[in-house]
UniProtKB/TrEMBL annotation:
PROSITE patterns according to UniProt: PROTEIN_KINASE_ATP, PROTEIN_KINASE_DOM, PROTEIN_KINASE_ST
Enzyme class: transferase
Taxonomic path: Eukaryota, Viridiplantae, Streptophyta, Embryophyta, Tracheophyta
One Pfam short name: Pkinase
Protein name: non-specific serine/threonine protein kinase
Keywords: ATP-binding, Cell membrane, Glycoprotein, Kinase, Leucine-rich repeat, Membrane, Nucleotide-binding, Phosphoprotein, Receptor, Repeat, Serine/threonine-protein kinase, Signal, Transferase, Transmembrane, Transmembrane helix
Amino acid sequence: MPSSLTSIDKTPSPSSFNSVGQSPSFIGDNNSLEYPNARSYHGYEDPRIDDYNQSRCPLSFQGIASGGDAPVPTIDPIPSDHAPIPANVPMHADAVPVPFDTPVPADVPILPVPRNTSASAHTPAPADAPLLADAPIPANASMPAHTPVPSGTLVPADEPVPTDAHIPVDTPIRVEPMSSQGTAAGGDAPTHVDAPVPAHADVPGDTLVPAQAPTPAANAPPRKSHSLKQEHFTLHPLFTMKRLDQYLHNSNEKLLAEVAKLHYDDEDLNLDDLIDPALRKQMDSNSLKIFSKTAYNCLKEKRVERPNIDQILKGLENALQLQISHDKPEDYVDAGEEKERTTNQLTKGGQLERLKIPFDKIKKATNDFRDEPIGSGGYGDVYRSKLEVSVEEKGDFSTKWRTVAIKSIRLYAEGKEGFDAEIALLGTCTHPNIVSLLGFCNEDSNLILVYEHAHNKSLNDYLGNNYNSTHLTWVQRIKIGIDIANGLDYIHTRVADEERIVHRDIKSANILLNKNWVAKIADFGLSRFHGADSEEKSVRTDNFAGTKYYACPEYAKSGRLKTAVDIYSFGVVLFELLSGKLAYDQSYMTEGKSGIADVARQQKTIHEMVDPKIMEEVYELTSTLHKGPNQDSLRTYSEIAHLCIELDQDQRPTAKKIAEELKKALSFQEKNKDNLQIPFEEIKSATQSFSRENRIGGGGFGKVFKGEVTRGNGNTTIVAKCLDRSQGQGDLHFLTELEILFEYKHENIIRLEGYCNEKNEKVIVYEYACNKSLDRHLNNVSLTWIKRLKICVDIARGLAFLHGGAPTKEMVIHRDIKCANILLNGDWKAKISDFGLSAIIATNGREVSKLVGTVGYVDPQYESTGFFTERSDIYSLGVLLFEILYGQLVVPTSKDYRPLVTSIFLDKIRDEKSRGSIVFKDIKEQIDPQSLSIFGVIVGKCLSYSRQRRPTAEEVLRQLEKSLEFQEDYEIWAPILPKDYAKILEFSTYSGNYSTKTKKDLYDMFSKGILLKDDKVLFSLGSNGERNEMVSATTFAYENHSPHDMWFIVPESRFQKVAKMLDTSNLMIKINTRPQFLSQNTVYGVHLVFKFCDSKKVSSNPMYVDLKYQMGNETLHAYFSQWRDDKWMMIELYRSSNQQEDVVFEFLLESLSPHYGRELDAIYVEGIEFRTIDNASLDILLF
């Protein structure tokens, strides 16, 4: 489980670095820390590292750290008195006592031994041995005069510096007198912190130079508890454990980790035996419980069972929070600035009195909370038990015994807040898809919630690598999605006049499943009430809540809360259901991606995300077996899921809309597969007994007829292909085409309408394409180059789907791609048809068969290899694309086919000079050179003799889309883009390189508006391509207002600031402006753009107001304000033809009065906009 989004500093502390000064590196799946070349400290090493186990040395406690009686850990002395210590081995004086006369190489970084250790006090240190920072220098250590102390070294407190010690300049040290237990500093030794000591200064021998704050004396008063607001905290294990030397020499030779695990596991032993009694009295039991459990999990034998660093930090933070609240509970009474419903407020007057349960009953039901928890969350543990609770039946309340889930809330600020939130929210909710609150207890410091029990646990137990023998079918997954959508719709809408609820932490772990697999939304501890008066209204919260990988990115950045926040999280859960993986699965953490939502947004197809278990589900289809979910069901499901994770909150659907779409997906999956069967007599009637008048085509496979069948309340035109068995079209061809059309549904694949398999008649019924086949239109002059490119893109997209874009483990090789098999509907959308010769094979497989296809289109490598691959279709596609550019068939009939001549002619597409000679003459003048160049290159690659050099269908699709983009830029967007757009951009705040943008991108940018003149003017293009300008309110003069008190930031505005006018009865806003980039000879309306500060909803109806203003010497009134698409209002002041340049517009806005029965409202003024008026005549201007 990922932790909730909190600020956690993962930076290792200085003490976490290894012994040779290297930084730790993060490795592995669990963000584990690896220290390259780090030494193993005996007694603490991983028991799985055998090399370290062989040299294990028990931990002992000897010596005094820095005064007082505080024990310091060291390691047993080196066995030999004269054993050499290898160079470059770092040794710490607090841990490794060096035996007397042990030779130490000059370049060994060493820290001298502290006082009272087992080592000799006179262990010599070499003259050039560098002394590491933070090392206590022994009182009587033999140090040569002028021993160099490195610059920047901090000399620890309470340790005397030898008289002759040489201290370089700028060495940061602190000088202060000794404590009462030491020798007082003589003279006027400075006592301030970080006093630099000059180079070569002689520090008197009785002066103490501390590196950090002096260690408290044994009888010093205890330090105050740290506040939770501290960014870092430090654990002191040496002071929390008793002396362990009593365990060092027993027969078992158990080390600290083994002893601690033994006391934790064995009920006959007590962990308290290892803890200092005085310290144990200070400990909160729950804090100790979490701390010890965290430590115990770190000691698990198997690495996979150990927690990662995030989980460890979370456990230690919880332990610290509990301890601090135990020491100073008053620090955790959170008054809050938000409008909260507390438990006391809710229960006042008996509103929820019936749900109160005495603590004694709960304590008894949970065996004094000694039962094993069934779960644990951010706020406490959850227990399963039997309890007598109040239940409602037909409007009456009675008490009954129920299996319940009991959540014990930890007593600290967030826990108390979550407790209050769940009472406030669940206490007012009754819905089958919302977990029911059956009771609560808030006696003394006990905060307990009692819910209905979810027999099948939570949804996340069935996702990812969690072991669970139960497999959720595709139908179950859709139903779970529908349940969640219904629950969200309830809390987001409820009764019209009541407040809505935003959950803020929708995730699979918070979706519970009862014994009937009904999904219920749970854990409302982070939820908030949201006003019911506006769907668009957002509420700003200072405290972000949610879980990483599920949380709405916009909410995480801005803190703006609305129901769309839950919709995004729900979308993540929908993709979890689809993939069978959790949102933070490692497969979704590749470069540039962070979670399942990122992956879903970046992928054009979803076949790689579908859970393989779903694909193994088998359904009956006529005489064949069909695997995997229904394609219509999968498509409908994925489309609504993608809308949920749109980055723009306004683009996300409501929960009600999601429920409707998921119900459609369910109906597609559950419908009877055989409802596509059409009786032969109905087809016969529809085609007028297969009359000659109804015949529209035919070939070796049989005959094709047009007909009309009744569907619902009307008739539908269809095409019926009757297979001719006399021509070899048997069951195999029939079933192959039927299976492909049923399985591979796509907008560029001809749609299957039905089939007939009776009376020895085999008929496949398709949708009708009214523009028939592509080969009929190659020389059609009305088929422009843009239309032809769009047809090319359609064909490539359909082929890419067949070659691997479908959510299956197989692919389809068509084996007969040609213009005659490309059908065109009324909108000229291309659809691939005729799959009678196709083959379904494994992805990247090959098909060995006799020669099939059409001469001129067949892969030339077939003759030498004897098999087809998907690259065989690419060659056929290349010929087809060549014909679309050429305007006629390359090989009109099989008699015209000359392999060598055809090959030479097709090679013309590769040569840029000869390429123009093959372009259809009626479209030659339309084509953009860059578009033609890209088209020619990719077609040439498709026609490569070598299959390895041919591109994939996906690559062909990308290049054709690029060619179409250049053609549309040339033909559509360039003509309507402002001719002086480069000059306009010079005045703008746009910092990018616009020369790399397409004309369409530039047009879209101008349509949305760009800021000019230091963000004072917003220039945009209207729907008709005319120019509009808005001048910021920051350029106006405000005669009765101070500019320092009136500027506000409003997210809905493109300007950095807008003006807030509190007194609309006395505006006195003087406007003097001159537009610069407006279109000449165009009628413009001059509008004031504003909005009421407390505006809650947008309406299509005009609002009646009275705006009084002066223009010249004339006093005027404007009465009707209109809503704009950007949620602002505008009211017209004037109309101008803009026939002159440099026209100055002057207005004095005096007052604005609403005429809808309300008091005067404050308004935001965004600016004055010059907007074109459609269909306005230059001859008649209305003022």
